[in-house]
Structures are given as C-alpha cells and as structure tokens.
Amino acid sequence: MSEEEGGAKIVLEGPKELLDRIVEALKEVYDPEIPVNVYDLGLIYEVRVEGPREKPRIKVKMSLTAIGCPVSVALPAYVEDAIREAVPEAEDVEVEVVFDPPWTPERVTPEGRELLKTIYGYDVVEQWKRAAQQQYGG
C-alpha cells in the first residue's frame, strides 16, 4: 500500500492497525527547526512492518531536509523512540536515513502545507517551486 500525500509517495506496508499506530507516532516527532512533524513534512519515505504481529520488525526509510542537517543523528533516534513507544511489542525498529530521492518541499503533505501557510503567512511550497523554476528554468 502507498499513500499519495501532496507530491510525495509514502510506502506503507504491513498490517493496517500497526501502520496506523506508527503513523500517529510519527506525527508526534518534530524537526526542532521546523514546526511541522516529520510525517507531514514529507521526511518519511517508507514504513514496512514484517514478521508476526506479536513481534513485528519495523523498517523506516526517511530523509532530512538537508544533508548537513544539524539533527541528522537525533531526528532518526526520535523516530525510533516514538515507534518503540507506540509499538512496544516490536522485536526490532530500524530507521535508515536516505538522500535518494532528495527531500524537497513538494513532499510536504497537504496538512503540513496548510500549517506552514498559517505559520509563515505564505505558501512555502509554491514559493520554492517558483524559485526553482527561476533558477533552473522549466
């Protein structure tokens, strides 16, 4: 199963009940520099739940807003901790940070986009698209 959230495709594989708990937990983890949770910010690329429900193994692929992100070690640890708390029966939780494809504001979910509009007073995603078009053409 995958969800289309804004311009992002988020791969969610496993039992729905566990995935729902994991997604809710991810929505409680925030990048300290941006007041939007990691799920709605589009930093989560994949969540896979494998093995038996009694002792699932959870694998997450996520990205960061930039390669040199100052929370590059802390943020994945926060994600792991949140999932372990939400799914205490998990045998293993693995969080992998990936940069392919690179994160862009187009990955922000509609909920995250609305929150950013409220906070900053303008559409951050549209602003980014316009700037990218001006810089790279298209």
From TrEMBL:
<dbReference type="InterPro" id="IPR052339">
    <property type="entry name" value="Fe-S_Maturation_MIP18"/>
</dbReference>
<dbReference type="Pfam" id="PF01883">
    <property type="entry name" value="FeS_assembly_P"/>
</dbReference>
<dbReference type="InterPro" id="IPR034904">
    <property type="entry name" value="FSCA_dom_sf"/>
</dbReference>
<dbReference type="InterPro" id="IPR002744">
    <property type="entry name" value="MIP18-like"/>
</dbReference>
<protein>
    <recommendedName>
        <fullName>MIP18 family-like domain-containing protein</fullName>
    </recommendedName>
</protein>
<feature type="domain" description="MIP18 family-like">
    <location>
        <begin position="20"/>
        <end position="97"/>
    </location>
</feature>
